[in-house]
Amino acid sequence: MLLNKRLSIFYFINQIKLDVIAIAIYAVLAGTFDHFWILKSVSIPLAVSSFVGTLLALLLAFRTSQSYERWWEARTVWGAIVNDSRTLIRQVQQFLPNNESGQTYIRVFTNQQIIWCHALSQSLRKLPFSGVVAEYVQQNDINTLNLPNYLLSRHTQLLAKATEEFNIDPNRQVQIDATITKLCDSMGRCERIKNTVFPRSYSVMLHFIIYVLMTILPFGLEDNSKFVEVALTFVIPVLFICIERTAILMQDPFENKPTDTPTTTLSRTIESNLREMTNGTVVPPTPAQPESYYLM
After folding, report:
1. Is residue 7 in some structural domain?
2. Domain assignment of residue 292, yes or no
3. Which of 113, 139, 181, 262 fits a 20 to 30 Å CA distance from 62?
4. pLDDT of residue 38
């Protein structure tokens, strides 16, 4: 998550620097030579540029809306994961007996749920397993392609074993199983967002239209000042490029970028909450001194 209310300007400029350089070079050349030689006689009605700009604005509005919808859905799913993780541990605490054997089951459920959250976060970003996840995999010699799904299976196996050992009421078993099902649904929604690629043709079309607007714009400006013409030819396309890049940054919320859904931070929050619920240990959910302007 961002620690400030604004994204680092240097990060954003780095995302659009190649387009800005290309537009700046064209603006200087077109704005200068539009007043000389054969280009001086070339005139494109400003209404054409206005039509292209209006079309581009509508397409970018739709693109930005769809990108934000994907980002917000990812954040909503992880909000549900936080709530369902707390609910799961609260249910096993309430439904299992308050003895040493019951507490053992609760601790196993808690550890598995913490590891599940971190494993889901790291697998969505396609990062190597680290921390408690790597330690768990090594200790249990696990070899699976989908560790989060494997851990949910361990949840159901553990629930079946506890039901048999403690003769848990079927209604209570169904409630715990329903919570595990909700976690599985959330995992599936995250995987759908991750694996559904935003249509590349749409991005290419928008980029092409921006450059078409940039190309025809200086020939429709009736201004005797070269500096004003160069400035307008530069500023207008760059504004559209900024909007397009903003949509691109939001459309994939699990790519290990500053604008991601903060799954690591949320996983730490879940870990802190669950450990406090089970043994009273307060674990800081985030590092005391972050190294950057954002936390993943």
Report:
1. no
2. no
3. 262
4. 64
Instruction: Report the SS3 class of residue 169.
Output: coil
Q: Please check whether residue 53 lies inside any domain of the structure.
A: yes
Q: Look up tokens 């800005």; give the residue.
A: 20
Structural domain that includes position 107: 21-37+44-279
pLDDT at residue number 284: 61
Residue 290 lies in a domain: no
Total number of domains in the chain: 1
pLDDT 10s digits, 142-153: 888 899 999 999
Q: Identify the band that residue 285 occupies on the pLDDT scale cut at 50, 70 and 90.
A: low
Tokens representing 263?
């799954």
DSSP string covering 55-66, please?
Answer: HHHHHHHHHHHH
> Helix 200-216 to helix 226-251 angle, to the nearest 10 degrees?
170
SS3 content of the chain, % helix, strand, coil (to 5): 75, 0, 25
What pLDDT does residue 32 have? 73
72 against 1, higher pLDDT: 72
Tokens found for residue 210: 């921006």
Residue 2, beta-bridge partner list? 294
Tokens standing for 57? Answer: 């604005």
From the DSSP assignment, how many helices (H) and strands (E) are in the chain? 9, 0
* Structure tokens that stand for 163 in this block: 């039901």
Residue 78 Cα distances to 113, 140, 151, 176, 231, angstroms: 14, 27, 17, 19, 44
